[in-house]
Amino acid sequence: MLLNKSTLVIGLLIAMVHSAHAFQPDYENIFKGYDGCFMLYDNSSKKMVSEYNPNNRCSQRIPVNSTFKIPLALMAFDAKVINKNTVFKWNGNRYELPGWSGDQTPASWEKYSVVWVSQQITPQLGLDKIKQYLADFDYGNQDFSGDPGKNNGLSNAWLSSSLKMSAKEQMAFLQHFANGSLGLSQQAMAETKKIIYVGKLNHGADYYGKTGSGWKNRDDNGNNQNKMRDGWYIGLVENAGEQYIFVSNLTDTALPSATDKQMGGAIVKEISLKLLNSYFSS
């Protein structure tokens, strides 16, 4: 009898540690109305836990948008353009987006996804150095040219523009980041990880993440009206001594209603957190 109880306890403990492997959601319903992709990878056992990849969506390249702030932070810390004490001075312009109208730290830059901070950092790095980092990272299509004919790569390449990558490429990049194999200084890796920390999932797992929001087929004048939304949410989960990587993206399959003002990144973040809270439910 004692042996049976011990066996039961051990079995329950194993089930708890590996709870992320037990939950398989109704992805088609969850992503209804969107072309979507979701991947959850166990970086400790090097196995894909779950993958939603209809019509090979996870291999389709879309603009990286603000997920570029992760590699940009790595570049900036590695090149010593910024450090943990850097303050990005606000120019006094008032912005509608929360958190943008004020001085920024590296952490607030990531938290509020402040584009004007990125646009301060990229000229300091310079186009040649950025392109070298992109090549070293094997980062998507590595196209930092920006909008056609505008020579605005340093300010716009990642904003629904030329720099694109697939979810599978994001996953490979995050694996290198998590495993410390990007060829960067340990300090750059550690400082970047700190500033993308978000908090804890419902049952205590720590998670790190970055959204990205943009527009499919934005016109040459940068007009975003009557356009379908792109959204990203990517990051890491650390649970019971194990590390996981998640990548999710979506694109509207039809124009959103005029009253639907939610950005693509916010939509897919909400979806991703529901999935992650279900996967890591114990």
Automatic annotation (TrEMBL):
Which InterPro entries would you find in this protein's record?
A: Beta-lactam/transpept-like, PCN-bd_Tpept
The record's Pfam families line, in alphabetical order, gives: Transpeptidase
- Occurrences of domain Penicillin-binding protein transpeptidase (ranges): 37-271
GO molecular function terms listed in the Swiss-Prot or TrEMBL record: penicillin binding
Q: Which domain of life is it from?
A: Bacteria
Q: Which first-to-last residue range defines the signal peptide?
A: 1-22
Write out the entry's keywords from A to Z: Signal
> What protein name does the entry list?
Penicillin binding protein transpeptidase domain-containing protein
User: Which organism does this record belong to?
Assistant: Iodobacter fluviatilis
Lineage, top ranks: Bacteria, Pseudomonadati, Pseudomonadota, Betaproteobacteria, Neisseriales
